[in-house]
Amino acid sequence: MESKSIYQKFLKIEIYFHVLLWSSVLIYPYIKYLEKEGGYMMSLPHELNSLFFKMTISYFLYLWFFPKKNKTKYILIVILVFIANTIAYEYFDRFFHEGDTHFWIHFIANSLTYLGFGVVFFTIYSVKNVYQKQVEIDRLIQEKQKAEIKVLKAKVNPHFLFNTLNTIYANALKKDDKTPSLILKLSNTFRYVLHEGQKEYVSLDQELQHLNDYINLQEERLSNKITVNFSQHVDNEKQKIAPLLLISFVENAFKYSSSIKGQNHIIKIIINVKGNILSFLCQNPFEENIKETIDNEWKESGIGIRNTKERLMLLYPKKHQLQIIKAENQFKIKLEIQL
């Protein structure tokens, strides 16, 4: 995720920022007086002593005080440490300035300097904390999405199961040679739903095989009522896709087509995958009043188009286009996904 990537980059460059900051503080006086006669008057040990106390108060605030949740409880400690650090610096700085008696002038000047560094490190901490919180928010959102997706995938259409079992039973009574194949396809279908369907992503060939098995089972059950024109053109079957995305549209097509009076209703299914773009078309006959003849349990069973729309929004935000068209007694689904 983008915020996590930015936060990780921030952590990587942070140490370099600290090194650059303190190096600049150390050498700045020497650069400032570089062209002046005699250069900077103070020795390197003097500047290292000054640097030590600046770093001490800065990292005390950065590592201990700023992360505290209830900062007001620790204000007194911070003030005492602030005063102690300034007095300690004044004490050790006297070794480089013998006879200097301007204690309070130095005390106020150094306090303002330390306050300035405190502001700098509070800014660093705030920026870091913003990204850290965003990473945590993203993690919680991702976990919530996974839980939602798991619930959406968990539904299995009981009508499909019972009707297919009835078809297999009828074939078995007739000792039809296709019975073992139908049992295997049904077994593969539910194995896919219960196992592969719980994974985050599967290969395209697995998803398409599941779709093929489902269509074959429905064709056998509704052989006198429905004709399926199914074509697929995939240039890379090993690409990954979220499982059980397309089945709801196909399931819906069979559900409504089988409820219409008459025979030889045509369901048209076309799947094309070129590069990382998947194009899916599912078209079936549709009559508005047919909804009334379908019992509520069947309407609400299965994964469902509404749930699939939600999954698409969660899994492929801004990477899919879904069109649902009802025209001239045809129900048409057009879906394009950037895998």
Describe this structure in words.
The structure is a single chain. With 339 residues, the chain is α+β, with helices and mostly antiparallel strands. Helix content is 59%, strand content 14%. The chain contains ten helices and seven strands. The protein has helices at residues 2-32, 44-65, 75-93, 103-153, 158-173, 179-194, 204-221, 247-257, 296-300, 305-315; strands spanning 202-203, 226-234, 240-241, 265-274, 277-285, 320-327, 330-338. The strands form two sheets. Strands 2-4-5-7-6 form a five-stranded mixed β-sheet, covered by helices on one side. Strands 1-3 form a two-stranded antiparallel sheet. α6 crosses α7 (204-221). The radius of gyration is 35 Å and the shape is rod-shaped.
CATH class of the largest domain: Alpha Beta
The CATH H-level superfamily of the largest domain is Histidine kinase-like ATPase, C-terminal domain
The fraction of residues assigned to DSSP E strands is 5-15%
Number of strands: 7
Q: So how many helices? A: 10
Which H/E pattern describes the elements?
Answer: HHHHHHEHEEHEEHHEE
Rg (C-alpha, Å): 35 Å
Helix coverage percent: 55-70%
Q: Largest beta sheet: what is the strand line-up?
A: 2-4-5-7-6
Helix-and-strand structural type: alpha+beta
The CATH topology of the largest domain turns out to be Heat Shock Protein 90
Q: Largest beta sheet, briefly?
A: 5 strands, mixed
Distance between the termini: 16 Å
| C-alpha geometry | rod-shaped
State the low-pLDDT regions, or none: 295-302
Number of domains: 2
Mean model confidence by pLDDT: 80
Architecture (CATH level 2) name of the largest domain: 2-Layer Sandwich
